[in-house]
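A quick word before the example. In earlier lectures we treated sequence and structure as two separate objects. From today on, think of them as two lines of the same record. Here is biotin--[biotin carboxyl-carrier protein] ligase written that way.
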Amino acid sequence: MAFTLAPTAVTDGYRLAEHDTIGSTNAEALDLARAGDAGRLWVVSKNQQGGRGRRGRAWQSPPGNLAATLLVVADYELKLASTLGFVAGLALADALDAVVPNGNIAVGIDAGRGVGNNSRNRFELKWPNDVLASGAKMAGILLESTMLGEGRFAVAVGIGVNVIAHPQDLPYPATSLRALGAACDAETLFLALSDAWADNARLWSEGRGLAAIRNRWLERAAGIGSEVAVRIDNRVVRGIFETIDEDCRFVIRDHDGGVVKVAAGDVHFGAVASASAV
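And the structure line, produced from the sequence above:
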């Protein structure tokens, strides 16, 4: 089965570049941007051999998992581009809801709970860039950018999903669609993802709809009201995860009652957050 775009994505002007094998979908997308591609291009493969996660970490992706990158070329305020990760998380969660049959996929204790301890979401979003199922990481999102000149820039919105397999040697739990009993393949998931992205991108509307995206994200957020530890460079901030603010920063109420707003950092919930070191 070949990768295909949803009709909604085609109508909105998105294109597709499919690869049997690729080093990195993000790297390919940014190379295409530097060569003059206008964006709205999905670069996809189910055999990515050189993927990477945040902070230069390797992203393990055995054949059969989904590696997809959307190339965005724009000239709006660059800081708005960082919120595309929240659009991507919502799109992927919506896509997973669409392709995975109803079942008992719950959020585990170490992932915390959604708003008001609402556990109706089978797939939840962990700030800033993970999608969880059963408290375990199923997918990661990585945004990378490059300046193109004349006020324009390119953003590669990379989405890696554990479809048929997940890493076993991580310091946190991970899972895959197959491990959860879902028979969905990478092509079917991507079809749903391209449709869900089109919907959420229209809502985001180049940042004009960020408040609506934030509200939707909070409805799926893992860990609100839970004990949390965030590693920021060489220090760890501990407290209760309260919300994300209007700029999508992570908001913690620390143990002294103060408010800490985090723009970037590694987040740990539950038992890991309560440990003496992260």
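Notice the following. Confidence is low (pLDDT under 50) at residues 106-119. We will return to this example when we discuss secondary structure assignment.
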